[in-house]
């Protein structure tokens, strides 16, 4: 079981849809999103994870306010920098994996930065690349050296997802990421077989294959969601961002033979049924092809109902 | 003379009014401000300076566009991080000097950052603190660990300017900074004796006293400028930001017994007479109480007239 042999077990903190800046002008709730983010980062430290994986929508606004961007930078500098050695190896080619970034390098591989806890993130639909230079807020964090921004695609026709390849002891992980794309377009690209996931050539069957995606999972119409059966069946675990309801306990898809974990947002943004439940993040442990997801309740989250 | 004994001589690159983002939507000139900033940073590297001192208005817009902020972060990471050891000591209390910052520490004193060339900057009238949290764009750069933002005052009634105290070999420097304040208000505060400059108690006469200020120097009306005679006469050199005309050669003020150097902007922002001259930055060398300012022409600057 994962967790028993620490040298071979990845420990990853999983969170998504943090929506920094949500309700920032509210006199009472204005800081809630930053408070939740701090609780998440603090959990990463407390559980001594190898890295933190975020599933998109770290920011609520495409152009976050100065206060929110500053608060985010400050938290990342406080919690993610430090002397803890990185316990895993990065095997794939950074210059390819991060070719969309001005610094195509992982922050913990930069000799000028002392990173204790790397953060890896894809973008969501709220913080997707736009405007001059096709940049998003994660580009600012990546270039500042605080986040590793992956899963950005530039082609509108054809997507090839190349995984980040990581190894800790005997455990090998292929981490696939795809930042948010308009559902209808991605749906169509899947139907036309224009989305492919590359696989490592060596020891093909030894990798734990994880995919982080930020799309509609629930069917809102014929084509504005991504059915699970569109995804490759060699995957072991899909981390599904965008949906705010916490369904973080991995759900088995018997047709595709993979698990799906939907962490849900760390802040309540609507009065819907799904958002009334307790919010959680996950501590994911992976050893070989086995994994265990442990739910961690978020204590600071204030719900939209009630009078906390 | 400064420059002869490198161990006792501060080498400082002086620039001001870089106005990142000026004309950024212009199809031809859009990148000019970033190009000029790169030339400035490159000069800092080439001349192996101890630090770079900026006199305000690094940004043209109070809320710089993502493209400009990203470009600025990228240049600072590229040029200011690295293995070069810092050759001077910082003697004053960082937690006081940078008490207005969330990380009240110089970037090169942070064990998690490997800084080769520190940048010190005050804010100007274009990039002054505003809005929630009273933050400015320099706060983002300071918190990201790329700039040391000083000279911010919070009181509207009374200003006490405490100097950063630096020592290199036998040379001691007291560096005073005052970020831009509305001219009329600052003028009135000076008249009412509400602006004071603190001086180190020990070896009072041994310090080279330098003041960086960002205000109107030219008289535009009775009170909307700061007359040089308002400034303390113990100063040795005043670096005057805000005025865009390059008058970087130090001018002697015989009444106050100090020199004033006005570097001018590194980008032409108006068609005025003063902006048609060649743009320069300065290489300032300070040894004991002596200094030398060497003009460095900026080669990439495109003027508003002509067809370069």
UniProtKB/TrEMBL annotation, chains A, B:
The keyword Kinase does not apply. It is found in: Chromosome; Nucleus. Its cofactor is Mn(2+). Keywords: Chromosome, DNA damage, DNA repair, Endonuclease, Exonuclease, Hydrolase, Manganese, Meiosis, Nuclease, Nucleus. Pfam families: Metallophos. The keyword Zinc does not apply. Transmembrane segments: none annotated. Belongs to the MRE11/RAD32 family. NCBIfam families: mre11. This is Double-strand break repair protein MRE11.
């Amino acid at each position: 079981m994962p967790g028993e042999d620490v040298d071979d077990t990845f420990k990853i903190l999983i969170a998504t849809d943090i929506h920094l800046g949500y309700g920032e002008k509210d006199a009472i709730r204005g800081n809630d999103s930053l408070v939740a983010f701090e609780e998440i980062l603090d959990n990463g430290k407390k559980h001594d994870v190898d890295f933190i994986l975020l599933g998109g929508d770290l920011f609520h606004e495409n152009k976050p306010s100065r206060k929110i961007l500053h608060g985010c930078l400050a938290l990342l500098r406080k919690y993610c920098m430090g002397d803890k050695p990185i316990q895993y190896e990065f095997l794939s080619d950074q210059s390819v994996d991060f070719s969309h970034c001005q610094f195509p390098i992982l922050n913990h591989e930069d000799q000028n930065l002392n990173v204790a806890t790397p953060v890896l993130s894809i973008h969501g639909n709220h913080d997707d690349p736009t405007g001059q230079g096709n940049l998003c807020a994660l580009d600012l964090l990546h270039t500042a050296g605080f986040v590793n921004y992956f899963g950005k695609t530039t082609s509108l026709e054809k997507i090839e997802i190349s995984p980040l390849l990581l190894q800790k002891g005997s455990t090998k992980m292929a981490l696939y990421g795809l930042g948010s794309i308009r559902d209808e377009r991605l749906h169509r690209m899947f139907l036309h077989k224009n989305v492919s996931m590359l696989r490592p050539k060596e020891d093909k069957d030894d990798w734990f294959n994880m995919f982080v995606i930020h799309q509609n999972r629930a069917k809102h119409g014929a084509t504005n969601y991504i059915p699970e059966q569109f995804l490759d069946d060699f995957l072991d675990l899909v981390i599904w961002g965008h949906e705010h309801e916490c369904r973080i306990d991995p759900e088995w898809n018997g047709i595709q033979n993979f698990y799906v974990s939907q962490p849900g947002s760390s802040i309540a943004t609507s009065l819907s049924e799904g958002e009334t439940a307790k919010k959680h993040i996950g501590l994911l442990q992976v050893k070989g092809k086995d994994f265990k997801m442990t739910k961690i309740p978020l204590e600071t989250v204030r719900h939209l109902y009630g009078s906390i």
